[in-house]
């Protein structure tokens, strides 16, 4: 696989060209590209072009949403190929983006990687209230909970979620891991989470560590 294929895919994500991302991803898969490399060196590399431009005010919300949608089209194609790649551990992880927060690209990636590690993942989506997390832990008898937040305002809702899990008497039953750009290990310690992960691969390792 030529490196330029990955760079081209990244450019298509940056351009928000969903149809071309879909086509390019499929063609790379047909030519034997590694699905994990397609994610990291193509799809996410495209988002790495977008992020600083959005931050600098050179790109606006609708454009970034088109990039996210384009990235999602590629993800849909690689997802079935990486699911259950490793031996199943048949443990359940409930995951979601906390209340008030609509960012889900990173969370979706964590879901995919956890699934590829053989976990049973219950994805609650975005803007998930503390009560909904508690309900899902009970309903699915989860061993691990993952909380995602991308905003400095919504990261505070992680604490509210952990507090309600404790109030419901479930805190001893579940391990809580948190992630997202504004959070850190320090913040995890502060709000009483069991761990912080900088990326999806680390999340898989941490979940495995929790369950051993
Ligand atoms: C894409 C994006 C959007 C898209 C989201 C589309 C979608 N479906 O997710 C749209 C355009 C909708 C958007 C909207 C907004 N956004 Co925005 N967005 C971004 C952007 C550019 C990229 C985020 C991203 O997807 N990164 C790629 C993924 C792969 O990385 P990640 O999310 O960090 O995830 C990885 C790790 O953090 C970790 N991880 C993530 N979650 C979890 C969970 C667990 C359990 C674990 C273990 C690990 C883990 O693993 C992931 C994979 O490796 C960031 C900039 C940035 N640098 O982060 C701004 C950014 C987060 N947004 C920002 C802002 C301000 C907003 C808006 C308020 C803008 C507005 N005025 O409307 C709204 C808020 C909407 C809302 N209520 O949520 C700010 C936040 C500033 C702050 N300090 O709070 C940022 C930092 C940009 C900036 N500097 O201005 N945004």
TrEMBL record:
The identity of this protein, by name, is Methionine synthase
Keyword Metal-binding annotated: yes
User: What Pfam families does the database record attribute to this sequence?
Assistant: B12-binding (PF02310), B12-binding_2 (PF02607)
Q: For the B12-binding domain, which residue ranges apply?
A: 90-212
User: Cellular component GO terms, alphabetically?
Assistant: cytosol
Cross-referenced SMART domains, in alphabetical order? B12-binding_2 (SM01018)
What keywords is this UniProt entry annotated with?
A: Cobalt, Metal-binding
Ranges of residues in domain B12-binding N-terminal: 1-90
The entry's family comment says: Belongs to the methylamine corrinoid protein family.
> Which GO biological process entries does UniProt record here?
homocysteine metabolic process; tetrahydrofolate metabolic process
Gene Ontology MF terms in the entry:
cobalamin binding; metal ion binding; methionine synthase activity
InterPro entries (alphabetical): Cbl-bd_cap, Cobalamin-bd, Cobalamin-bd_sf, Met_Synthase/Corrinoid, Meth_synthase_dom
